[in-house]
Amino acid sequence: MFIRSFALAFILFASPAAQAWNAAGHRLSAVIAWQGMSPASRSFVSQALREHPDHARWLEKSGDGDAMLVFAEATTWPDSIRRDTRFDGATATLPGFPDMDRHSDWHYADFDHRGKRGRGQIDRQIAELAKILRSTAEISEIAWAIPWLAHLVADIHQPLHVGYSEDRGGNEVLVENPFAARQPFVKLHTYWDDLPGPSGLRGKRLRLRAEALLAGQARPVQGNVARWLQESRQLLPAAYPATRGSVTLLIDEAWRDQARAIADRRIAEAGQRLGKLLEDIQRHRVSRETRPAPASISPAR
Ligand SMILES: [Zn+2]
């Protein structure tokens, strides 16, 4: 019993807090977003991404260099910089970057059980990034902001990314998973992050899974970032297993199926909303560029 308790405590406190849908979740949202975008918006996004310092790596990871798959890789970038030594503090700021910070508090926002806001910036940063993308003329800044915006729109659809401060969005809740022989105890937050599928999901399997997710879902109301956050918070009661096992909360088959269905729906919603948001941003930019200059006011004679 002592060894078991020790093992549980180790999982809870020695491993770093997980803070994102895994890479499969982000790539799926990106592929779904792409389906809803016009050729003009797709080209706006892919041209900007070409200016990003990590474009070559995305191109390589995407396999065949397809613009949609490059975009899918780019949306995992805000997580990949967690392990990137350029963000350790000694590297000069890259072109278009506001700083060389990992911004780990952008991925979430916590609220206590009474609803009082705690740590995290996710909703504020989504609004800010959309504002930057509508207004900046700097292609390198657009290249920096698109991966961030796409990433955070997906994250805010994961209920535990706007979870309770008391358990740090499910990072301090251990659940028992009888369906995973190799990892029978897992942090609740990690369990949710991994629901989209294996993190190496790419290429044809990625396209097929995105198609299947989209086929099963109705088109969501677009709403705004406040609505997306509220929807995720309303899902929080369902995000915790209702059954108690001998040591901790226990995942049973019914809850597992329900959690999978919620994750599938939220990824499809995130993708469709992201597509529309990028479409709106691109249209706004075009209408701003083509708007006639204000007529000069000449004094009346
Ligand atoms: Zn994230």
Structural descriptors:
binds zinc ion, 301 residues, P1 Nuclease, mainly alpha, globular, 6% strand, four-stranded mixed beta sheet, two-stranded antiparallel ribbon, 51% helix
Number of domains: 1
- Number of DSSP E strands: 6
Give the names of the bound compounds.
Answer: zinc ion
Which segments are poorly predicted (pLDDT under 50) over 5 or more consecutive residues? none
Order of helices and strands: HHHHHHEEHHEEHHHEEH
Helix content: 40-55%
Shape: globular
Mean pLDDT: 90
CATH H level, superfamily name: P1 Nuclease
Strand content: 5-15%
The radius of gyration is 21 Å
The CATH top-level class label: Mainly Alpha
| Major sheet details | 4 strands, mixed
Q: Provide the CATH topology.
A: P1 Nuclease
CATH architectural designation? Orthogonal Bundle
Describe the structure.
With 301 residues, this protein is mainly alpha-helical. The chain has a single domain (2-289), classed as P1 Nuclease (Orthogonal Bundle). It contains twelve helices and six strands. It has helices spanning 2-14, 23-35, 39-49, 55-62, 67-74, 77-80, 122-135, 139-155, 188-193, 203-215, 225-234, 253-290, and strands at 109-111, 117-120, 174-176, 185-187, 243-244, 249-250. It has a four-stranded mixed sheet with strand order 4-3-6-5. Bound molecules: zinc ion.
